[in-house]
Design a protein that fits this description.
- The chain is α+β, with helices and mostly antiparallel strands.
- It has three domains: about 425 residues, Glycosyltransferase; about 100 residues, Golgi alpha-mannosidase II (Immunoglobulin-like, Sandwich), CATH 2.60.40.1180; about 120 residues, no CATH class.
- The chain is about 35% helix and about 20% strand.
- The protein has 18 helices and 23 strands.
- Helix 3 packs parallel to helix 15.
- It is globular, with a radius of gyration of 25 Å.
- Bound molecules: zinc ion.
- The site of zinc ion has 7 residues, from helix 13 and helix 15.
Length: about 650
Amino acid sequence: MRKRIRPSAVTNVEVVNTLFGRYADLVADRIIPYQWDILNDRIADAEKSWCVENFRIAAGEKQGRHHGAVFGDTDAYKWLETVAFCIENHTGAEYKPVAEGLIELISRAQKPDGYLNTWYTIEHPDKCWTNLIEGHEMYSAGHLIEAGVAWYRATGERSLLDIGVRFADLIEKEFGPDGGRREGYPGHPEIELALVKLHEVTGNEKYLSLARWFIDMRGREPNYFIRERKANEGEYLFFDRYETAYAQAHMPPAEQETAEGHAVRAMYLFSAMADISERCGDEALRAACIRLWKSTTQRRMYITGGIGSSAFLERFTTDYDLPNDRMYCESCASVGLMMFGCRMAALTGEAGYYDEVERALCNTVLGGISMTGDHYFYVNPLEVWPDSCMSLTSMEHVKPVRQRWFDVACCPTNIARTLASLGSYIFSEDGESLFVNMLISSRISTRVSGGNLSLYLHSSFVQDGEVRMEVEKEGAEPAFIRLRVPPYYKMGELSINGKAILPEVDRGYTVIPVLEQGSFVITMKGRVVPRFFAAKEEVRADAGKVAVMLGPYVYCLEETDNGANLANVFVSPDSAIEIAQPEKPLPGDLPSLVFEGMRLSRSIVEEDALYGTPGFEMSPMKLKAVPYCLWGNREPGEMLVWMKALV
Ligand SMILES: [Zn+2]
């Protein structure tokens, strides 16, 4: 039987890459304290969070109404999870006392029976579990449990874990297959993957069984959500119209063919399905996960790893419908795509899933946060004309500059916890092999084949094509390094201690045996060149257009480098792309890219007319592109990924 693949422990990894290492430091230095101020409503010019205030009211320590989103508690949980990852990384110890204070407050807000949700406790204590479609009680419980698991792993303390366990035990008492328990399942998946983690840390099978039961029950006839809507007789929080596909409850998950509905919900559900399939050996769920992965990444995903084409209901639409200026592409959905992809790689052992994990990380997820750590995108456009992003129009959701916070603020804390736990995305392990999934410079020390193994991955592949791994192996048993060589990397030579090797490739991983004790230097020399990409002709929005990428990084034009009205820019896909100096003051050392283009300076012959006789005039210009993940960090203005092609 194949060994189980697990993400490497965050505590064993130090990310030192000039770009991601900087953001990892930023999480501890700036993002955690900033978000803590936000959660306590101490930032004057930001949307109010109400998060900590709601816990105080629910704990009976203050009077007042609940404010903010029904799932606002999750901002506190994701903040705590981020602090836990930083403590694991040895960078967050100073926040431990503050976090402990918050954990105590959370415990005082928990009901004696284990129930914990400030919105219901303050506003509708009589209506718990009556609106699973919209109420987010189990979604919030899931984030509580995930935070509790992370806190336990980081500190060895059970304080937050036990709060999660009490709530999980209550949910297990309320929901389940027998004993007169309720039949429902969560409107927003999340608790399923949290219960899998809780099972892992406690060893208690009932949490895994409950997670599996939630997946098994979802979408069965007679549909629970339809029955719940009828029972509530038009009393709803958000949805006056509702379709079960919005929450992926239109059919049992194992039968689903395409990625439907709310993109974040879809990713969290699919992640849980992959978890359950991997733990329980469920072949039908595995096949569904593979179908849904393909549906998502081969037909419904942006080149930036963004997903969710429609702002209305933040959802998937139909194959190849990928508008660039009015899409949704929520930051959380791309975090979810990373979660799903890692689990698919663990389920199948195949490296290729990390192509899209890396795409989402290096573009949309990183682009969701400013280089200062205190401004965020919720929605991630590929084309911005700031004047058109007007309030009270269909473009209202698109913000041309990152925001300090949001009235619904799931994304900032989600990005923070992802950046703080990046080591567990870069490396995974199965006891015998160390998997190097992304070429992001880092150090790891772990145990492989019964002995200590440390690896220093120094990767400058974007700059000079070189990847170097310094390995120290203490154990006598053979170990393997499984290296994902990404598709954009043209490998020249691979060597160990200067001796060229020709290793086998297994499921996309180059398998490098490290058979003896001692020190080894593995060197990979190759090339990454910037290149133009086009989209399949079915993608109407990108017809006749090109985008430019360097390795996993999508590039974009910004007004500050290229002037306004970027829609008038044309580029030949045959243009030579010159690698230029990184643009100051953007972080990291990703180069900017320079190439020849043309600008349309006049379209019609007539003066002062809106429409007229075609009279196109073009003039040559030099264009400069910067990494999409860093756009909007300088002067505000227009931005464009897909440029019209001169063909
Ligand atoms: Zn979000």
